[in-house]
Amino acid sequence: MPARAAKTKTQFVCQSCGHVEARWVGRCSSCEAWNSFVEEAQTAGPRGADTGPVQAAPFALASVDSAEAERRTATGVGELDRVLGGGLVSGGVILLGGDPGIGKSTIALQMLSGITAAGAHALYVCGEESPAQVRRRAVRLGVDAEGIHVLAAADTDSIRKAIKDLNPAVAVIDSVQTVYSRAVASAPGSVSQVREAGAELVTAAREHDVTLVLIGHVTKEGFLAGPRVLEHLVDTVLYFEGDQNHAYRVLRAIKNRFGPANEIGVFEMLADGLAEVSNPSEVFVAGRREAVAGSAVTCAMEGSRPVMVEIQALVTPGSPGSARRTTLGVDHGRVAMLAAVMEKRLGLSMISHDIFVNTAGGVKISDPGTDLAVMAALASSYRDRALPPSTALLGEIGLTGEVRAVSQVRARAKECARLGFTRIVLPRGSLEQAPKTKGVDLAAVDSVSEAWDLLSAG
Ligand code: TYD
Ligand code: MG
């Protein structure tokens, strides 16, 4: 721990949520993160007191021009526009988070390329890389850098001045962890700095009607440094997900004041940048081998979009008491719950088996409507019997083994049929709403045991 400076007063700030303690503590009482406290210099005066335009008099809400708030610019990257809800909003602030190396700088540059191609100016503040590195990436992406101005500075005063002088349509800060405000003594990347520098830049963006994109890294624990302090400040939080070892990347809107939240965009990382994947279902189930044990297909709702996903499971004998549960793309706790339900309702001895569950391609799914497919993949691997061909499974599983209705069954069933699945196993509660398509057999089930009997019968 750093020694206390003799003169400057310090405090301990949780790097996850910004909670302040006078002394170092191991666990944050506010967000319960472990080991998240760092000693920082205290800031003088109320934060942001001297920033922001003075709001003088109140005025009638009805007198506000609603078209004003919605001036959008399409970025030219279709999947990004879809996630944003139609394009960038001027004066809007976007936080773009993700693991290092996932493609944040790449998508930012591709977005600027689209914006500047229409004649607009853009500012790219590179705090992490040299302008030469940014230029090399632009060349590699085939981005015509005309109209993109780089600024190799990390202090908010320089950035604000550049925004004022250049008056760009979009300003990208890559990354927010490298910028600092002179008003705060803490190191760049600390919560106090991220909060203060972020607030100053947001104010500047709103003042000059510039779309601000703040790029932020994710820490080991899976949080943006100071996520909560920035999340409430921005209009849109986008999160770039994906597995480094897979080419597919999913851009997800966690929060969006200007559009639907939880909408996704799908990209593939190629040698010349991120390519849009407008037909994710085809891609995610492509190359799938039918008639192998441990594979099941489902349709997950990601925002407004139905996406077909292949679930792969491997169940092998392990030692009871220390059996492993490893998952990629599927929630770990959910798989443990499903295994317990299978133990109880299907009589399979899951407790003495190691369990591995993946989504093919590493796509992350959090939709409980995919439970039945996860269970079917597990049971199929356990019994070493492939599921019947051309079968897709929909359904959420409850603790008593009941198969519950899923949301938006129409969209899901249509997507299954579109991709050539001829049998859909679905909850009885969803049967009525499911569209009847010629050549597609709808098999309704109430419980996991009924579903498993049906699947075993072939
Ligand atoms: P980058 O955008 O630098 O990631 P981030 O800003 O999120 O840290 O992209 C990093 C990875 O993408 C890097 O490992 C190289 C790879 N990449 C490609 O495969 N093709 C490309 O055209 C580019 C620019 C990067
Ligand atoms: Mg980067």
Kindly list the characteristics that best describe this protein:
458 residues; alpha/beta; Rossmann fold; Ribosomal Protein S5, domain 2; 3 domains; nine-stranded mixed sheet; four-stranded mixed sheet; 12 helices; 23 strands; 26% strand; globular; binds thymidine-5'-diphosphate; binds magnesium ion
Explain what this protein looks like in three dimensions.
It contains twelve helices and 23 strands. By secondary structure, the chain is of the alpha/beta class. It folds into three domains: 10-42; 72-278, Rossmann fold (3-Layer(aba) Sandwich), CATH 3.40.50.300; 283-456, 2-Layer Sandwich (Ribosomal Protein S5, domain 2). A nine-stranded mixed beta sheet has the order 8-7-9-10-6-11-12-13-14, with helices on both faces. A four-stranded mixed beta sheet has the order 15-16-18-17. Strand 15 and strand 16 form a beta hairpin. Bound molecules: thymidine-5'-diphosphate and magnesium ion.
How would you summarize the topology of this molecule?
Layout: E1 10-14, E2 20-21, E3 37-41, E4 72-73, H1 78-84, E5 88-89, E6 93-98, H2 104-117, E7 122-126, H3 131-141, E8 148-151, H4 156-166, E9 170-174, H5 191-208, E10 211-217, H6 227-231, E11 236-242, E12 248-256, E13 264-270, E14 273-276, H7 280-285, E15 295-302, E16 305-317, E17 325-328, H8 332-345, E18 353-359, H9 371-383, E19 391-393, E20 396-397, E21 403-404, H10 409-418, E22 423-427, H11 428-431, E23 441-445, H12 448-456
Parallel strand pairs: 6-10, 6-11, 7-8, 7-9, 9-10, 17-18, 19-22, 22-23
Antiparallel strand pairs: 1-2, 1-3, 4-5, 11-12, 12-13, 13-14, 15-16, 16-18, 20-21
Helix pairs in contact: 4-5, 8-9, 9-12
The site of magnesium ion (MG) has 4 residues, from helix 2.
